[in-house]
Sequence to fold (92 residues):
Amino acid sequence: MSETEMSDTNALCPRCAHGAIEHIFDSPVPGVWEVLQCGRCLYMWRTSEPARRTRRDAYPAEFMMTPEDIGTAPEVPAVPPLRTSAARTAAG
Fold:
């Protein structure tokens, strides 16, 4: 994929249709893919993924989100601290 074929970072988010898409990372081989992230729902995708992951018109309807869905979504739980080796032994 040439530089001119790389995705338009001003496109809509496949999941929530937000227009603020941030360029996060480029492939180690220049021009192969990019990683993009939505500024509203935080969805991330690689431009080399299939259309059902990268294009709003092909994204599965059951996974689409509205601003209301995002605003009322439950918080993602924090990752608990790692157990110590003693706790792992006791847990069996």
